[in-house]
From TrEMBL:
Molecular-function GO term, any one: catalytic activity
Feature: compositional bias, Basic and acidic residues: 251-260
PANTHER family assigned to the protein according to its UniProt record, in alphabetical order: COPROPORPHYRINIGEN III OXIDASE, COPROPORPHYRINOGEN III OXIDASE
The protein, known as: Coproporphyrinogen III oxidase, putative
Species per Swiss-Prot/TrEMBL record: Shewanella violacea (strain JCM 10179 / CIP 106290 / LMG 19151 / DSS12)
Keyword S-adenosyl-L-methionine: yes
BP-aspect Gene Ontology terms: porphyrin-containing compound biosynthetic process
Region (Disordered): 251-271
Pfam family, one: Radical_SAM
Amino acid sequence: MTGISSPDPLKFAFAVKSSPHAGRSGSHPLDLSPQQWQSWWATPTSATQRALYIHIPFCRKRCSFCNFFENGSNSARISRYVESLSQQLYTASKTPFVKSGTFDTVYVGGGTPTDMQASEIAIIGEAIQAFPLAKNAEITLEGRLNDFTDAKFDAALASGFNRFSFGVQSFNTQVRLAAGRFDNREVLIERLQELSKHPSASIVADLIFGLPGQTMEIWLQDLQDVIQSSVHGVDLYQLIGLQGTRLSKQAEKEKAKQTQEDGSQQKQQTLVPAVDSQTRASMYAAGARLLESSGWQRLSSCHWRRDNRERSIYNSLAKSGIEILPFGAGAGGNIHGHGMMNARDLSNWHQAQTPDSVTDTLPLRVPGMVMSPNPSAALDSQFKAGLDHGELVLSEFDTEMVDHLMPLFYAWQTNGLVKISDKIMTQTLAGRFWNVNLQTGLFAYLNQNAFESCASSMST
């Protein structure tokens, strides 16, 4: 929960970041009836902010660090999927639930959405326009630069997309080849520079630090390259050793081989990431300092922008627990406070896309999981959003809750992770690097030290 006391909290406050996200339980799976499903789409929303998430579950190639690969790209397969998905979007857009409130942001993710053809990107973009969008709504298309042609860019812009997020990961050609990426450094920089010349669209690049073969020298060049590329925003993501990736499987084979040769556990190689946590901490610090000294504004613990064109609305609002309508196989979100995760299997998703007389006026229920509302969802989202941003304004929370958490907060301060002043708790550089660990620690503290307000105590 607290981290440990160390002369260098950036490197040693915690052993490792073991998960990309933090959260606590409080929900359970529900068996949603057809009548309840129909009622959802007939009931106006109570949310003040909303988003759409649309999933395109296809990739031409599986990257070594990814465990989300679902379906190989195939033109006929993608075309069929886009046709069914767009029909569902148009159907949903006409329901009382959708029409009852505007949508601030839309994210088309994957997979690799840019593997769609230009005409298919336009189909999805035009279906999005059928929803009641807020003025200046942010509409993001995610993907890769390889095969993102001018025709695709033009089709996306014409159909309403105004933000483009590209997974660069590293500019270094050798690191990219080892990770299973397309294109070399020069091609990437040139293409990003071309796209960034557009007068209004926001161009964003994702970088990963800690990839195999990515030394500090290479990482510093990656940072210089992303600045040179003229993009408007950049994410710096830490490589995490997730199970199921090619990297993890390779490491497991090496571990088994080492065990067989040594006959002991003492010299086993660790699983991914290939770069140790201390080096990754130094990489993060180098990236944050270089970007901020170059005039970039930090919007979260991992996202910076060159100018106000980049807003990162979806990423920031999603962490604050807003209502997110999910569409497509593998999409996740929440409706009327109920968490939802559509199953990934594409065949089962298509089998559910056969309308009948009862459901042809509302989105068809697809295989997946529905969760009961989490009673602590609003509070948890407030904590997560604040910690991700880099500070908690303690005056925005119930005084009794803050008093309850102060032993944890003071421990963080003692260990160099935060600074507390004037009812504001600000994370240090180390605290931002260990942001997910802090969130996990906070939720663990609340689970082990149940909070009960004076009001609830008196009522019992």
